[in-house]
Design a protein that fits this description.
Number of helices: 12
Largest sheet: 7 strands, parallel
Strand order of the largest sheet: 3-2-1-4-5-7-11
Strand content: 15-25%
CATH class of one domain: Alpha Beta
Structural class: alpha/beta
Helix content: 25-40%
Number of strands: 13
Amino acid sequence: MQELDLLILGAGWTSTFLIPLLRAHHLSFAATTRDGREVAGSKTIAWSFNPESKDKTQFSHLPFAKYILVTFPLTSADQTATLVQSYSAAKGKQANFIQLGSSGIWQIPQETHWVSRRSPYNKSSPRAIAEDELLKLDGCVLNLAGLWGGARDPKTWVDRVAKTKEDVKNKKSLHMIHGLDVARAIIAVMNDWEKAKGQRWMLTDGFVYDWWSLMVGWADAKNEETRKNTMIGQPVASEGTGEPMDQAKWVFELMREEKIWALPRSMEVLGRCYFGREFWDVFGIVPLKARI
């Protein structure tokens, strides 16, 4: 069987950006899903990982690839070791593993409001434990900030994350990364593995967003949606009053109460701020879809 450049274990949302980019770079690949459905115009292999089994035959019908991208969370050191070692044993040679993780592991008390990939993280998190095991095995971990792009529109999150004025008051910093830039980062890691292996990387678009600024900037979001619906002949939404959304109004009330002169608020006020430049510096690229 032909050796591939990349095998994607668990082709989901990220793969809708990654697969077209792999084609554009003429990189060979295969991908798995639980049901073998088509993703981004490519057939996938029906497969799922059984973390309780050390039987290497669960990998027997998968192709060998130089790089393996694990998109689903592993939750113990044993799961990571099983995946890496059983796959390599099944194929008779060693692949390089890349794990997608979450930047949420840094959401613990810190000594400074600036947080980098070297800052303390929640080592008791099952996902962090699994990732640490992969680093010991010379794999690479990409801890992703909030994902957006395609069907994921951050404007639609406001009503869910801030239902009340008190919710708005408690919203501070936000860190994001576009799906296309996640895909570009994966390919950058494949192209410069010596820099990537054994390393945990924090992946953001380089911005520290102020939730208050976003809410004010999106004050007209519901009216925009109403205008779109009207143009395509759909019923006008009841929210389409020409008024700013409630969250934007609450922000300005809070600015008066907390004596905030203008937005965005300072880094000190925002609290946790991720140092989002290092990955891009090391691999010599910059985000293509920065600034939501």
